[in-house]
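task queued by scheduler; priority normal; single chain, no ligands, no partner chains; default sampling; output format set to structure tokens
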Amino acid sequence: MHQGEWINRLTDEDYKTVAAEEMARSRKLCFQLNQTPPGDSNERQLLDQLFEGRLPSTSTILTPMQIDRAKTMTIGEHVFINHGLTCMSSGGITIEDNVMIGPEAALITANHDFQNLDVLQFKPIHIKKGAWIGARSIILPGVTVGEESVVASGAVVTKDVPAKTIVGGSPAKKIKMVD
């Protein structure tokens, strides 16, 4: 959806129709998932509905969660996402194989114009193979987290993270390379 361009959420027809419908669909399914007891047989069926059958059987997402547009997300094999995930995913989110995401992480692909809150900009997030995202980390629009990198708990990631790098803090800075 308009990658990198500023759009007005009140006047952009794509946003008002396609995005609004998908947000309503995702919110309803997330609500149902969040009310489903852990391990209930309906849990996987609801996840399959949310991701339209694109969530690999080897990947796990614990509830509760809030995903505003599941259709714009791609999740690889052997991904584990702990409870409390928040995804504002209109800009697109790709999570490659063997990624682990800790509790209460946020993946945010949208940003507002600070002078006009109706104007939005979307940029994708890409989390590459084998990366770890710590608890309560925030990944902001346009960020790529490199292969086998680690984002420390509570980090606010505003810039790309190179492969095999550990980052932490707010804003996130390099701590060291992964051995």
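post-processing summary
- The first helix runs from residue 13 to 34.
- The mean pLDDT is 95.
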